[in-house]
Amino acid sequence: MLIRLATHSDLPGIHVIYEAAVRTGTASFELEPPDLSEMTRRFEALVAEGYPYFSALDPDGTVLGYAYAGAFRPRVAYRWTVENSVYVAPFAQQRGIGRALMNMLIAESEARGYRQMVAVIGDSANSGSIALHRACGFADIGVLQNTGLKFGRWLDTVLMQRPLGDAESNVPFA
Description:
The protein is of the alpha+beta class. It has a domain at 2-116: Aminopeptidase (3-Layer(aba) Sandwich). It has four helices and seven strands, in the order βααβββαβαββ. It has helices at 11-24, 36-48, 97-111, 127-135, and strands at residues 2-5, 53-57, 63-71, 81-88, 116-122, 139-150, 153-163. Strands 1-2-3-4-5-7-6 form a seven-stranded mixed sheet, with helices on both faces. α3 (97-111) links the parallel β4 and β5. The chain is globular. The protein starts with a strand and ends in an 11-residue tail after the last strand.
């Protein structure tokens, strides 16, 4: 497996993974999957803002998963805090791909000067994502109950957080 910064050539595979997650899962609270052009717009916006975006590929180039960081909130005081997203293709789950992507994303976010990473996890029953985040050093922060309605049922939002680098001891100058 190769993990590298995502490129435009990865976007069709990324789109397939996310489309399946939206249509069949509760990790995303989107009800209709965005088309490839919208996924491309989102990718380009994140990269243009300087956020890391990674793809995991098998030797034949098939996208197995992806992870990225983006703005946690739009107000300038939050500029040192990122929100993460990680998705792994259904056929590639339980192989350590999510953890490898998260470790790369955490390291790169630290290198880019971010101080906190927040996970906003759809569905408190999403035990795989919650366990992945705990294994990567995230702490449980709280649960927002019944905040999303998908597939005819209310879903919780789980909040988790991880400090990056010397988060508490170093105030950035910018």
